[in-house]
């Protein structure tokens, strides 16, 4: 099958779409990727790409085409321009770069923004190929939840755009069951909506115990590891409040691995609160390095700020944490909390509740290693059962087979 991927983000940026593309190539499919210039999460184009762009034109056997795009840089206005520039680049340069190439299906990876669907729909029309959209971030709800857009009028306009995109896709996939009703508000044909969750890369099955040398060894210490995007949605004010509440507990150490738009704020707050000896910020590392940081962890933390939209989300790191076989501290609501509790993989408290998080940390730290190991084992078994990578890969390809052969997604006037 000829699969065309449209994604604003792609290798060398760390996203699950990289794993999908490699899997499809390994299974014998012909994969082409239309994407932008790598600049996430730091906001600047990666130096290695700037030095030699041609070396990033293929990935694991897939052809990669990159359209002109403005880097994210800093600030909300620049971020909106970044989103808009990919739409313009994808619509103007995409058809030219992909001229003469057939596609059996177009797959859209949408962790945000939803606007990535616009060039995909245009290409679907031009190539008479069905478009399958994987929704990992709900618009317009997320825009309101993080405060990027506050105007009800603007949110309604974004809703119309979302409806335009959903109704021109052959299938719309939601990353959690909680997403499906929200998607249905904008997609008139509910039969096109399917549940398709994230999975954990197999590298998180590593049990060799090799620890990241960037982190100093510590004895008699309960180390809590956060790994991933450091953004508005992750509820870092409450995490730092919990760290401050536990200041007198000298055995608790925090390791925050990653980068993002709130990294500088977190770093400044750690210094302001004089928590440098308790909260370590080693920075961003490739996903392949994450198991070495997990090896330092007595517990892994997943958090989201309190908001009804985020309660419908299972953060992608939860699947990775579960498969890693480490106990989980969850400061989140809804779907993510339910996954951890159902698995029996850790302790959960309400999103944004620093006091409850501090109590959960003390409770877990007081457990025996055997009790915590049992939590981790239950989590891994749950992940292998519910988020099995091979089974999910098969399911996604079955969706492609379902829409393959259709002339084009049938749009209708709004």
What's this entry about, in short?
With 414 residues, the protein is α/β, with parallel strands linked by helices. Helices cover 40% and strands 16% of the residues.
In words, what does this structure look like?
By secondary structure, the chain is of the alpha/beta class. The protein has helices spanning 16-26, 47-51, 76-92, 94-97, 117-127, 141-145, 152-166, 179-184, 236-245, 263-272, 290-294, 308-311, 316-324, 334-343, 354-365, 369-386, 389-403; strands spanning 2-6, 30-35, 58-59, 62-66, 105-110, 131-135, 171-174, 193-195, 222-227, 252-257, 279-283, 299-303, 328-331, 346-349. The strands form two sheets. An eight-stranded mixed sheet has the order 3-4-2-1-5-6-7-8, with helices on both faces. The protein has a six-stranded parallel sheet with strand order 11-10-9-12-13-14, with helices on both faces. Strand 10, helix 10 (263-272) and strand 11 form a beta-alpha-beta unit. Helix 9 (236-245) packs across helix 15 and helix 13 (316-324) crosses helix 16 (369-386). The longest helix is centred in the C-terminal third of the chain and has 18 residues, at 369-386.
């Amino acid at each position: 099958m000829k699969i065309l991927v449209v994604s604003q983000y792609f290798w060398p940026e760390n996203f699950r779409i990289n794993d999908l593309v490699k899997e499809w190539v390994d299974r014998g499919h012909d994969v082409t990727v239309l994407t932008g210039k790598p600049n996430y999460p730091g906001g600047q184009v990666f130096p290695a790409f700037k030095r030699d762009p041609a070396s990033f034109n293929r990935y694991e056997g897939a052809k990669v085409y990159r359209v002109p795009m403005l880097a994210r840089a800093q600030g909300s206005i620049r971020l909106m321009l970044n989103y808009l520039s990919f739409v313009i680049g994808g619509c103007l340069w995409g058809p030219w770069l992909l001229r003469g190439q057939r596609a059996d299906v177009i797959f859209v990876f949408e962790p945000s923004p939803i606007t990535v669907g616009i060039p995909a729909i245009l290409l679907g029309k031009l190539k008479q190929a069905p478009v399958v959209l994987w929704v990992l971030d709900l618009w317009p709800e997320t825009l309101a939840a993080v405060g990027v857009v506050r105007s009800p009028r603007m949110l309604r306009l974004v809703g119309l755009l979302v409806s335009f995109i959903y109704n021109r896709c052959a299938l719309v996939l939601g990353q959690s069951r909680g997403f499906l009703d929200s998607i249905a508000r904008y997609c008139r044909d509910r039969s096109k909506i399917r549940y398709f969750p994230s999975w954990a890369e197999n590298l998180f099955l590593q049990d060799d115990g090799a620890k990241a040398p960037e982190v100093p060894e510590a004895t008699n210490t309960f180390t809590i590891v956060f790994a991933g995007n450091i953004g508005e949605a992750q509820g870092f004010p409450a995490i730092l409040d919990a760290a401050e509440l536990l200041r007198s507990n000298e055995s608790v150490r925090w390791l925050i691995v990653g980068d993002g738009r709130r990294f500088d704020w977190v770093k400044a707050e750690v210094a302001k609160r004089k928590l440098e000896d308790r909260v370590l910020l080693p920075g961003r590392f490739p996903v392949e390095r994450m198991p070495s940081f997990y090896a330092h962890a007595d517990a892994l933390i997943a958090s989201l700020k309190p908001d009804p939209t985020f309660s419908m989300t299972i953060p992608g790191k939860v699947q990775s944490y579960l498969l890693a076989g480490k106990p989980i501290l969850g400061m989140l609501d809804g779907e993510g909390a339910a996954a951890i509790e159902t698995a029996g993989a850790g302790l959960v408290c309400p999103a944004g509740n620093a006091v409850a998080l501090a109590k959960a940390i003390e409770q877990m730290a007081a457990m025996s290693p055997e009790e915590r190991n049992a939590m981790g084992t239950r989590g891994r078994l749950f992940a292998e059962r519910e988020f099995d990578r091979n089974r999910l890969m098969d399911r996604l390809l079955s969706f492609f087979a379902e829409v393959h052969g259709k002339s084009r997604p049938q749009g209708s006037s709004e």
